[in-house]
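Lab notes, practical 5.
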Amino acid sequence: MSTGPDVTQESVALTFFNDEEARTVQAIAERIIPGSGEDAGATEAGVVYYIDRALSGVSTDLQVVYRLGLRALDQLCRAEHGASVAELGPDTQDELVRRFLGPEQGEAAPGLMFGPEDQLAGVDLSVVGRLLTIIREHTVEGYFCDPVYGGNRGAIGWKLVGFPGAHWGYTAEQMAPGFDGRSIPIKTLSDLRRELRDLPANETFYRNERG
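Output from the prediction step:
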């Protein structure tokens, strides 16, 4: 059972979701990318914070479908199970996700592209399906994005797939077939910004013309 995001720390404050909405989104995201053994899941990656920031920024057009969808999803779970999504056990949460998104393997559920019609969705099962489809897409984005956007904390998504992150470039050896990218130290956009601050002064690179 999900304990929900820790919203008591200033560094992880929510900007769009209330606490209950965040717990619901986190529970669904964790079933889409669950933690398993040494592999961290969506919760550890901070996916819910990526989604929360996205809805306050680049994805403001999806605020309404999240609000209506989360309300409808809560109504559905309380009617069928007498509990909220976050209070359900993992197996029941998995059944809920499969109900709207289909099995873990096979054809993906339709509707990965969203448009203005998403803002007109009513509070019914169709909006629940649309919501879970969006959460699935946002979960993948949040798990593999640069950490600067709130998700992929500790670059755990990149570590999982052996992606070295943001680099200025790669050597011929690193670009050669069969090279293990996991041997390259992971860098984030924040790392690159620090490197820019630490660069020598421009004068260091000028040619000395005085002989």
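Observations recorded by the TA: Residues 111-123 have pLDDT under 50 and may be disordered. The chain has two domains: 10-160, 162-211.
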